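_Full entry_
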Amino acid sequence: MTRKRFVYWQGQPIKRDSDDYANIVEELYISAAQNPLFRQALKNADRPLIHSISNTNNKETVLTREEYEFEINCLSAFLKEYDKQ
């Protein structure tokens, strides 16, 4: 069986390994940061956030452990830096 590596966003297929997909994921995290509780939790993190139970193969998951950790830690660092200004 051949797997088609697409995620559907607003009815449109998006290739899992495309820039469009990466941009959607980034925008989702930025949108989540609008939630005050989520935002505060990220700012309160005093060490890098990890997700040890996620899949590492991008052919088998919507978001790999590395992708999740990258996005969440970048957002956390951004929010901390933004508050300093």
User: Anything to note?
Assistant: The first helix runs from residue 19 to 32.
